[in-house]
TrEMBL record:
The keyword Translocase does not apply. InterPro entries: 6-blade_b-propeller_TolB-like, OmpR/PhoB-type_DNA-bd, Sig_transdc_resp-reg_C-effctor, WD40, WH-like_DNA-bd_sf. Residues 1-99 form the OmpR/PhoB-type domain. GO terms for molecular function: DNA binding. Pfam families: PD40 (PF07676), Trans_reg_C (PF00486). The chain crosses the membrane at residues 146-165. This is Transcriptional regulator. The lineage of its organism: Bacteria, Pseudomonadati, Pseudomonadota, Gammaproteobacteria, Alteromonadales.
């Protein structure tokens, strides 16, 4: 049912709108969520703990935050907290919704009861005093006025919808465009941006073994100028729309700075003008306002915080934050400004693979939620028409789509043989640039007890990755895109004659998903699959696939505590929190604070936790005694949502970059408590170890070229 109604109040659940006495009120996301939760749970006491779990799922909030949101709910309802008609406070227990809303499919006002009451009052007019009759008449007039106002509100809503569909008819649907390659070089080219006069292309050049740098290419004679730094990574170049200047990103360890430089003087670092600093845990997206006065960018305080969008006035260097939804998870991870400079579109996501599309009227600072999508939209730009959006299709994206603000697909802009990402609008009122990329990895196994070459496993012509070794059975699992979308496969390790066994498909996901980690249970009977902040458990013998009901929360760094219990990291109050979850009882329990993530060693019956601030591995024989230091520093704490810490039969391995910013795998020995470099692998993170050997991925092909749409 779309509408929830009571007396003179209607809640439009589709548009996140409350209509009271004919006035339409747009509700902020958490205000709406809290109101709907109360409406769906009337006549019972709701505790603050329940509100934290159900409305603020995945994050811990203070009681003050709940109280502030409740004040906004009451204000929207017109409810007086001293004499409430809707939500009452139950001392020391919580709150109760004392009014029951009726659900309807249509926007309507049921005036039958009002008519009956009016008739009764007329019949009783002879038996009451004139003053009461006058008061009753006034009430009837007020009710009629409310009915009229409400009818006008519904009519206004219908007109708005009609106007929406009429404007849809005026939208120019893009015909599928041809493609023109702008770069075809070795290594990867990323973040393309063409100058306003269409003469030059700036992009990020990524080369293995050295920091990324910026190329500026003349599109006529293809001459290039490279801008680099001996230590820092330079990336994300963006042309100013009014000057021959380029804004770009500078990153070195935990230092992040946005610079602006004149194109003719950009090779001289002394001419770089610092615009603002950014967090070392972020990778900001940069967008100029069309008049060139402001530079917009998004930033986050840490990996535990969502992105927020800021802007800097380039005249006085003043930075402010725009009106936007403030959420955990990814936050406002992508955005763009319309060509006319009037509106900003932003993509917002918390922890699940869902996208909320918001638009912001920049002059009025008015924010509007326009769509909720059941997939994670990779990026977005405004179309040249200032009305529709262009974005990659759902994962894995092989197309660019044109969609309206409701997220409805209107047309295919580009259909590509490789995947697409990082699109930008060209200043010719019709075309776009984007990165066309292809990655192929293979899986190999190396017996650590034998001095031989790694064995090739059941690899396909497309990407095979996320290998997992069974603890004792000689099986391995992996993810492959051989069936177009990512699915999980199971196979047996090769025998001594190196015969490669054919793998068996374990999962059949209904929709395309991103997968991040596989891990066998201690007895090898189950396989844990980490998808988009969702844990899937596969019963290998029965072939059953079950999703764990963990709600909308961050999930990273999963490991098995025992056959029925998982350890994983989530986010609470903006910090990492280690949790354990019992699959059988469905009980979620917090572990000690101060750690990003951890593993449990069943053989030695001890925990290995990664400390919050120092990233040092700490040993805990139990959860009560003080931890023991190992001296092993693992940076970063997580890589692609996997914990950067691996348990081996005799020690621990993790990636460390503390020595002059050189990354290498380090090994901590249980026997002598020493730290030394571990064996070299083709990969620094996508591997697993058991007492038989190590399974790992190796990059076979990586291509990323810049393409331009070409109108007919």
């Amino acid at each position: 049912m779309r509408y929830l109604e009571f007396d003179h109040i209607t809640i439009d659940t589709q548009n996140q709108l409350l209509i009271r006495d004919g006035e339409s009120i747009i509700l902020a996301p958490k205000v709406y969520d809290l109101l709907i939760f109360f409406c769906k749970n009337p006549a019972r006491i709701i505790t603050k703990d329940e509100l934290m779990d159900e409305v603020w799922t995945g994050t811990l909030v203070t009681e003050n935050a709940i109280s502030r949101t409740l004040v906004k709910v009451r204000k929207a309802l017109g409810d007086d907290p001293k004499s409430p008609q809707f939500i009452i406070t139950v001392p020391r227990k919580g709150y109760r919704m004392v009014t029951e809303f009726n659900a309807n499919d249509k926007c309507q006002y049921n005036d039958q009861n009002t008519t009956e009451q009016t008739s009764i009052n007329k019949e009783n007019n002879n038996t009451v005093t004139p003053s009461f009759s006058s008061l009753n008449s006034t009430k009837n007039k007020q009710k009629k006025t409310l009915i009229t106002l409400f009818s006008l509100s519904c009519a206004l809503l219908i007109v708005t919808v009609s106007f929406y569909f009429s404007t849809q008819q005026n939208i120019e649907i893009i015909t599928t465009k041809q493609l023109k390659p702008l770069t075809r070089e070795i290594a990867d080219e990323q973040h393309p941006n063409i100058s306003p006069d269409l003469s030059q292309l700036a992009y990020t050049k990524v080369v293995s073994g050295k920091p990324s740098y910026i190329n500026i290419e003349n599109l006529s004679d293809h001459s290039k100028m490279s801008v680099s730094h001996p230590r820092a990574k330079l990336s994300r170049p963006v042309w100013s729309p009014t000057e021959s200047k380029i804004a770009f990103l500078y990153q070195h360890k935990q230092v992040c700075i946005i610079f602006l430089a004149d194109q003719k003087e950009i090779k001289n670092k002394d001419n770089w003008q610092q615009i603002t600093e950014c967090s070392g845990e972020s990778w900001p997206h940069l967008v100029f306002s069309p008049d060139g006065q402001y530079l917009y960018f998004n930033d986050r305080q840490s990996k535990a915080n969502g992105y927020q969008i800021f802007r800097v006035d380039l005249l006085n260097k003043q930075k402010d934050i725009i009106n936007q939804p403030i959420t955990s998870g990814q936050g406002n991870y992508a955005f763009d400004i319309s060509p006319d400079g009037k509106r900003l579109v932003m993509l917002n996501s918390e922890f699940t693979a869902q996208t909320r599309i918001y638009t912001l009227d920049i002059a009025q600072a008015k924010l509007q939620l326009t769509a909720k999508l059941p997939y994670l939209m990779g990026a977005v730009v405004w179309h040249h028409d200032n009305m529709t959006l262009v974005h990659p299709s759902p994962h894995p994206a092989y197309e660019l789509w044109q969609s309206n603000l409701a997220g409805e697909k209107l047309a295919v802009v580009v259909s590509n043989t490789s995947r697409v990402k990082q699109l930008s609008r060209i200043n010719n009122k019709q075309d776009f640039t984007f990165v066309s990329y292809l990655i192929n990895r293979d899986i190999h196994f190396k017996d650590i007890n034998k001095d031989n070459q790694p064995m090739n496993l059941d690899n396909s012509s497309v990407m095979d990755y996320l290998p997992a070794l069974a603890n004792n059975s000689g099986q391995y699992a992996f993810v492959s895109k051989r069936s177009t979308t990512a699915e999980v496969y199971l196979a047996q390790l090769p025998t001594e004659n190196n015969n490669v066994a054919t793998s068996k498909q374990l999962t059949f996901f209904n929709t395309p998903v991103r997968l991040y980690q596989l891990l066998f249970s201690p007895d090898d009977s189950q396989l844990m699959v980490l998808a988009d902040n969702q844990i899937v458990i596969v019963d290998i013998d029965k072939g059953e696939v079950n999703n764990l009901a963990l709600g909308n929360r961050a999930i990273s760094g999963i490991s098995w505590l025992d056959q029925h219990t998982l350890l994983f990291s989530t986010i609470r109050n903006g910090d990492w929190q280690l949790m354990q979850y019992n699959i059988a009882t469905k009980i979620l329990t917090a572990m000690p604070n101060g750690y990003q993530g951890g593993l449990y060693d069943q053989k030695n019956q001890r925990f290995y936790f990664l400390a919050d601030e120092s990233n040092e591995v700490m040993i805990l024989d139990d959860l009560i005694q003080a931890p023991q230091s190992t001296g092993l520093i693992c940076e970063p704490g997580f890589i692609n949502r996997q914990l950067n810490l691996t348990l081996t039969p005799n020690g621990l391995v993790c990636l460390s970059d503390v020595n002059n910013n050189i990354q290498e795998l380090k090994y901590y020995s249980f026997a002598d408590k020493s730290i030394s470099p571990w064996q070299k692998l083709p990969t620094l993170f996508d591997y697993q170890i058991n007492n038989k050997g190590v399974i790992f991925t190796q990059l076979k092909q990586s291509v990323a070229d810049i393409m331009q749409t070409k109108s007919h």
